């Protein structure tokens, strides 16, 4: 049977491995590049509207999220801005 000391060492080892895997995953995720065709980038730029405009001041925010979440977030923000104007 496994002793308490062995179980403690195993838990510390597995927990440390899990933390290293999380840090490695985030490092790779942040430094990953997404190659999009130039036409797709130009089409996104043409179809996108500014988040908010009020007189001479404009609000632009840049965040990095998953594309599906980003599309839904932009849709919700545009709907919110358009409804309050």
UniProtKB/TrEMBL annotation:
SUPFAM superfamilies: Oligosaccharyltransferase subunit ost4p (SSF103464)
Cellular component terms (Gene Ontology): oligosaccharyltransferase complex
Stated family: Belongs to the OST4 family.
Domain of life of the organism encoding this protein: Eukaryota
Protein name listed in UniProt: Dolichyl-diphosphooligosaccharide--protein glycosyltransferase subunit 4
Keyword Transmembrane helix: yes
Keyword Lipid metabolism annotated: no
Annotated compartments: Endoplasmic reticulum membrane
Record's keyword terms, sorted: Endoplasmic reticulum, Membrane, Signal-anchor, Transmembrane, Transmembrane helix
Gene Ontology biological process terms from the UniProt entry: protein N-linked glycosylation via asparagine
Transmembrane segments annotated in the record for this chain: 7-28
Organism: Penicillium antarcticum
Bilayer topology annotation: Single-pass type III membrane protein
Main localization, broad class: endoplasmic reticulum
């Amino acid at each position: 049977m496994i002793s308490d000391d062995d179980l403690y060492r195993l838990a510390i080892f597995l927990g440390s491995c899990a933390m290293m895997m999380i840090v490695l995953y985030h490092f790779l995720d942040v430094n990953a590049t997404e190659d999009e065709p130039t036409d797709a980038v130009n089409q996104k730029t043409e179809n996108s509207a500014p988040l908010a405009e009020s007189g001479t001041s404009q609000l632009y925010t840049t965040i990095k999220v998953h594309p599906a979440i980003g599309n839904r977030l932009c849709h919700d923000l545009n709907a919110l801005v358009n409804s309050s104007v």
